Recover the amino acids of this structure.
């Protein structure tokens, strides 16, 4: 389960609307418990795939390193990543899986339809390595002031 | 030197997010790391012993692949090494 505040949820989805028709991407910082990640911050990243930004994204490694450093300074970890699928479903693609290497982390995808954020889904990368890695969808729980008000958030 | 371990690899370092190792070069430090934590090796290196393409290494603020000596770069006192897997994807090949 991925837990985050309404404000962070809105921020992630709003980023996808801002960059439409291009893909947005960012890094999620948080803490892990036995049920999954609780997100404390979303760090916007630039999409380096200017050659194909409508359907691909890539975060510069130096941005990842800076996010890792920020996480460390805040006693957090890189918990996962988010990106948008402009005019495509909020489902992982073969490209997403092939390029996913952060086992145990959450990959959040927002479908942005004609400029408006639609469904947001989260998938946890499961497996012991590159050979058996796979995505497993996980519920998203939105919390306001520490109180859960929704167990599965979907916008259709 | 201190090597910072990314989230997905901490399960192979007993949960540690940083490991202190000895080594004269980046490669030697990685060898020392994987000697202490053997299960890490397959996640960092291919079967041929080459660093996996998706594994980025930063010596302090410098991407090791752009340093003149690359992984043979010598380490100075106080240097840190950050291991950071790449992140990319996109909605161009939907499968489900």
């Amino acid at each position: 389960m991925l837990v985050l505040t309404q404000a962070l949820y809105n921020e992630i989805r709003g980023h996808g609307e801002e960059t439409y028709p291009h893909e947005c991407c960012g890094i999620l910082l948080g803490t892990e418990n036995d049920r999954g990640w609780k997100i404390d911050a979303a760090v916007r990243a630039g999409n380096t795939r200017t050659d194909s930004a409508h359907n691909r994204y890539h975060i510069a490694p130096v941005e990842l390193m800076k996010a890792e450093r920020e996480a460390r300074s805040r006693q957090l970890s890189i918990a996962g990543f988010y990106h948008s699928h402009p005019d495509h479903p909020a489902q992982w693609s073969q490209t997403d899986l092939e390029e996913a290497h952060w086992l145990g982390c959450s990959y959040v995808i927002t479908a942005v339809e004609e400029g408006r954020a639609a469904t947001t889904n989260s998938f946890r990368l499961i497996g012991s390595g590159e050979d058996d890695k796979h995505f497993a969808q996980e519920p998203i729980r939105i919390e306001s002031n520490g109180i859960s008000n929704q167990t599965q958030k979907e916008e259709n | 030197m201190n090597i910072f371990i990314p989230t997905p690899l901490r399960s192979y370092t007993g949960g540690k997010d940083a490991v202190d190792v000895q080594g004269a070069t980046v490669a030697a430090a990685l060898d020392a790391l994987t000697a202490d934590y053997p299960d890490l090796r397959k996640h960092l290196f291919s079967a041929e012993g080459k660093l996996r393409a998706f594994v980025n290494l930063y010596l302090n603020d410098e991407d090791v692949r752009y340093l003149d000596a690359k992984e043979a770069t010598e380490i100075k006192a106080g240097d840190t090494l950050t291991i950071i897997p790449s992140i990319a994807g996109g909605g161009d090949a939907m499968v489900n």
Q: What stands out?
A: Chain A touches chain B at residues 23, 25, 27, 49, 52, 55-59, 61-62, 64-65, 68-69, 72, 77-79, 81, 83, 85-86, 88-89, 91-105, 107, 109, 125, 129 (CB under 8 Å).
